[in-house]
Amino acid sequence: MEDNFQSAYQEEEDRLNHALIEIDSTLERLRSTPVYTGHDYTEQVLEDSREQRRKDLAKLRQEPYFGRLDFQGNDEEERKALYIGKIGVDREQVSDRPLVIDWRAPVASLFYSFTGGTEMTSYEAPEGLIEGLVYLKRNVVIRKQILERVADTYNRDSDAPAVSDEFLVYRLGENKDNRLRDIVSTIQEEQDKIIRAAKNTALIIQGVAGSGKTTVALHRLAFLLYQYKDQVSAEKMIIFAPNRMFLDYISDVLPELGVGNIAQSTFPDWAADVLGVTLPEQDASEAVSRWFETAGAMPVITEETPGRFKGSTVLMSVIESSIKLLETSAVPEGDFSPWDGAVLRRSMILRWHNEEYAPYPPAKRKERVMARIHRWIEMELKKSPSAAALKDRKKKGAAREKAYSAKWPKYEPLAIYKQIFRAAKTPEDWPAGAPEEIPPAVLKETVKELKKGILREEDLPPLLYIHYLLNGNEGTERFDHIVIDEAQDFSPFQIAVLDLYVKGHSFTILGDLSQGIHAYKGVHEWKEMQSLFAGEYTAYHALTRSYRSTMEIIEFANGILSAGVGSGLLAVPVFRSGNPVRLISYEDAQPEQAASGGKRLSAVRSALSSLSGREYRTVAVLTRSLREAAELYAELAGQFEDIHLIDGSITEYRGGLSVLPVYLSKGLEFDAVILADADSAHYGGAAWDAKLMYVGCTRALHELWLLHDGGLPHYVQQLGEETVSGWPVPEGN
C-alpha cells in the first residue's frame, strides 16, 4: 500500500514539474510579446486574449489543478489522464488533451458525478452523450507549486477500497479564515447537479446549515458564464445577500474562480437605488430591535403582521387595481384649449391615450400624450395672424399646457402608495375607504408612518411594483441571472418583483427554513415562492449533507430542531468527528475568577482564552441581543487584542475573535463558537427561539461551547453522547 502511494506521489510530482515548466515557458513568451496599443480592432481583440491568458497562467502556476481523471471513451483507443483545475489551459503544441481542463467543462462533470463502480459511465457534451470507462479518480493538493497531498478516491486497477470521503474530510478539517473559499476541488455529486442545472429555471434550493448552498450558488454563476457565454454576461448578473458584511465575506469566491464584474447588493440597497429614495439607516436596526432585543418576548407573527402582509401577493392585486383606476380616469375632463379659439377635443386625446399609446405603461403614455399635445400647440401657433398674437398665444399656451398636465394623476410610486393606504388625498373616482384587503392594524400603522415620512424595508417591494407598472423596465436593465441568498428571509412579493427584472425566470434561490429567524417578513414554506412560477419554470433541490461542522455539533443541533421545532429538515453529517459539545454553567466559574466581573463575564473570558489559545483562526462569542454583545465586547476588549464587535453597521468581516448577537451570525462560520446565555431566560420555548439557537450552534466548524445559568430550554435538556458538561480538564492533570 505504501509503495503504491509513493509511486502515485512520485508520478504526480513529475507531472507537476513538467506542467510548471510548460506554464512558465508559455507565460514568459506571452510577457515578452509587446503589448499592442494601436487602434486596429482585430489586434485589440488578440491583445485582450493574450492579456487574459497572461493573467490565467500567472494564477495557474501557483495551483495548476486539483484533480485527475483517467477516462477512456468508447470511441477512443486508450485511456487519457485528464487534469482538472479552476482555469482551463491548452498546451502550446497541438495535443489530444489540454494541459488543464476547466472544472466547468462537460468531461469534468465526471470528476464530480462518478462515485465508483466498474460500469460504463457517461457525460453530456455538445456533440451528444459520451460513454466510456473511468479508470482513476485522484485528488491532489498543490499549494504554491508544491505537491502536498495525493488521494485516490477510485482506482479500477487496485484492490484497495475507495476512500471518497477521505479527501473531503481532510479539506473540511482545515481552519477558517475571514473569507468564504471556493469548493471547486470538493464539489459533491448533489452539489454538481445544482451547479450545472439549466439556466432558465427558478431553482429553489433548501440546504441545511453547512451544506455549502452559498458556495454552490456562486459556483453556479461561474458555470453559467462558461456554459452560456454567448447568452449571458457577468455584468448582467447580481447576487442579493442579507447584509453588506456578508457580501464582503463571500467576495473572494468569484475572483478565485476567475469571474469578476458580478454585481453584489442587498435588496434594500438595490431597490432604493432603482426608486431613487433613501432608506433611513436606522430602519433595519429598529426592526431588529423590535423582534430580537427583548428576550423571550417576540411578538406573535400572523398573516396580518405588516412584513408578512406587505410581502404577500394580496397586496400586489390591490396595487394592480389601484393603477387601473388611475389609468381609466387619467385623461382630465373637458377639451383642451391653449388660448381662446383653439380647441383640442378630449375625444382625440382619449384616442391617443387609449389606442395609439396603449402599449406604453401609464407614465410613458402620459409623456407621449403630452408631447403630442405640445406638437399640436406648435402647429396651431403657426396659424397666428401677427407677431404680437404669436407672443401672447405662446405665453398663454405654455401656462395652460402646464396647468393641464397638472390635472393628470401624479405617476410617482410614493404618492400612489400613500393614496392606496389613504395616507394622502385620493383621486375623486377612487373608493372613499381603503381597500378591504388591507388589515386594519397594517393600515393604521402604515398610515401613521407614511404621514411621518417613514419608509420601512417592507415598503420597498410594493413601491418597486408601482414603479414597474408605471414605467416598465426603463432605466433598469434586466438581469441574465439573479442569486438570492438567505431566501427564506425574502417575501413572495420580493421574488415576484425581481422576476420582472430578470430574463427567463433565471434564479438561484437558496436558503434554509430551519434558519427562518426572520419569519415576520420571510416565507414559512417554499411553496410560497414555487407558486409564483409555472411548473416548467421552477425546480426544487434539497441539500441535506452538512460539510461545515463535526458530527457532534450537527447531531446536537439536529436535536434542537427535532425537540424545539419538530422539523424534519435535519442535516446528515459527513464523517468528521471532533470534541463533544460542551455545556458549562456559570456556577462553575472559579471564585477568584468570578470576583473580577462576576461569574458570567468570568466564564465567557475563560472560554474565549481557552479556545483562542488553540490553533483556531476564528472564534466567536454569540449573545442573545446586540446590547449584551456590546457590553461583553467592552469588557473583553481590554484583554484580547484581535477582537471585534459585529453590530450590523460594519461592512467587512475581519476574522480573528468576534462578539456579535446570534441573529447577525447567520451565513457566517467560525472555527469555534461560544454561545453565551444559552438558557431559558434568553431562549424561550417557542419554535422561533429554537431556530435562533440552532443558527448559533451551526456556525461552529470544530468546537461549540454553550454557557448558561443552569436553566436550559427544554430542547437542550437531553444530554446525548455528543455532549459533555463542565470545563475541560487542563492538560497535564
TrEMBL record:
Coiled-coil residue windows: 9-63
Sorted UniProt keywords: ATP-binding, Coiled coil, Helicase, Hydrolase, Nucleotide-binding
Keyword Nucleotide-binding recorded: yes
Sequence positions that bind ATP: 207-214
Entry GO CC: cytosol
Entry's Gene Ontology molecular function annotations: 3'-5' DNA helicase activity; ATP binding; DNA binding; hydrolase activity
Record has DNA-binding as a keyword: no
Domain UvrD-like helicase ATP-binding: 186-550
GO BP, sorted A to Z: recombinational repair
Superkingdom field: Bacteria
Protein name per UniProt: Helicase UvrD
